Fold this protein.
Amino acid sequence: MSSPSDRLTPELASRFTRIALGHVAREYPNKMDHVLTGPDDVQGPRDLHPIFFGSFDWHSCVHGYWTLATVLRRHPEIPEAPAIRALFDATFTADKVAVETEYVLRPSSRGFERPYGWAWLLMLQTELLRHDARWAAIHQPLADAFERRFLEFLPLAHYPIRTGVHSSTAFALRLAWDYPSRGGLRDLVRERAVGWHAADHNANAWEPSLDDFLSPTLMTASLMSRAIDGDAFTAWFDAYLPGAAAQSPTTLFTPAVPPDRTDGKMAHLDGVNLSRAWCWREIAAAIPEGHAVRPVAEASARTHLAAALPHVAGDYMGEHWLASFALLALTAGET
């Protein structure tokens, strides 16, 4: 069971909005993912990315906009709502989308933001499509470009990438699952997920690593909760984490503690806690009532959320992205 503190309240929606508004248009500091093919490519973030130039890095800016779009839809009554709408009207223009799309289609951008940024861009478009506004229609060409990237990449991806950072294929495919593709992306995601993970069992859960902001173990389970249904997922999960009802491996039930939140990589560990909360909620929702794992998963989600939620803001190294992961956890199971 969840309590009001475990879900997105208007107060949290306002807080997350103020955080995101403070960084999506903040150009510097900036960590770019940019391949220079010649001297003409030496340009700043805003010139290269007229929409997603803020939030320290491109992908964080994307999910900062997703945060704003999500809280606006869920809580349109918050006092910050007019500022979100004004920002979106000024930001999502055909000219700016064209520049972002042209950048993605450069031959040297084949690996740009693969697969993490790809997935977040589709997640943003999924949310924009839920709004009665022109933003999604204008933004669609960029979403189409990233969907093509997935459709080209996944048939070549013979192996998963089992990490707790941006390269994670489980995280990317879990986000891409929600995108209302007309090009068969969901079928391809299911095919890859089952091909990679159907035989996984007795997961060791050697985590977290100091760089992690995702749980590699639980992200796989979250993805599989979408790729296979009902009893098949329960049977798979029982083999994958056979000790889960007894809270084993203990590391999956013990929140991580960042040793220094001013260090960008160490601050990732707050993300581990938030991503675990999200995953445990998705796992619990996919397991039937009465199964011994379900209350344990729900309790672990609450524990991890409580450990990380106070640290969503404070230092910019976490502040530019953590609210998005808190929002995933707080809205898990909702549409």
Remarks:
- Residues 4-330 form a domain with the Glycosyltransferase fold (CATH 1.50.10).
- The chain has a mean pLDDT of 96.
- The radius of gyration is 19 Å.
